[in-house]
Amino acid sequence: MTIRKILTFPDPKLREVAKEVTEFNSDLKSLAEDLIETMYEFKGIGLAAVQIGVNKRVIVADVSEEKKEPFIFINPTIRILNEDEKGGYDEGCLSIPGFYEEVVRPTQVEISFQNLSGKKEEIIPEGLLGVVVQHETDHLDGKLMVDYISSVKRQRIRSKLLKLKR
Ligand code: QAP
Ligand code: CO
Description:
binds 2-phenylethyl (2E)-3-(3,4-dihydroxyphenyl)prop-2-enoate, alpha+beta
């Protein structure tokens, strides 16, 4: 298990579309373990492989109080169950440290994914988990929470983070 470095916006690697996982081997298991350890280290509730520079469709999430209920989703896809039910949430992102923005998303979704053995599973997440899984799945398509806000705000966040990096 290794704590990995998290890429920050506007790193171009965060814009890549991640590749489907086809091999369910021990490398995949260590990747998932690193993601979980890195998420806990930086007090996150969700993390996508692309955020640590790994171009694979793997995400992890843990919205529990005790931080002992990690979920691993491989090749996740989202199906909106009710287009009319939407909710806003002040989202954060480990790749956009220090910034929180309201994002409106569907509240009733079904997640289809594979587990570490490659077995297909489905869940209908409740509350915050549904928000986090949608946020993390966006990462796999190169999409970031700042894409939901105005371009003026996005540019402001971009220059602030670039200044912090220097
Ligand atoms: C995605 O993000 C998420 O700015 C996961 O200084 C978060 O875990 C989706 C974090 C909230 C929906 C709601 C952010 C930690 C963690 C920061 C995170 C920071 C330290 C973000
Ligand atoms: Co994020």
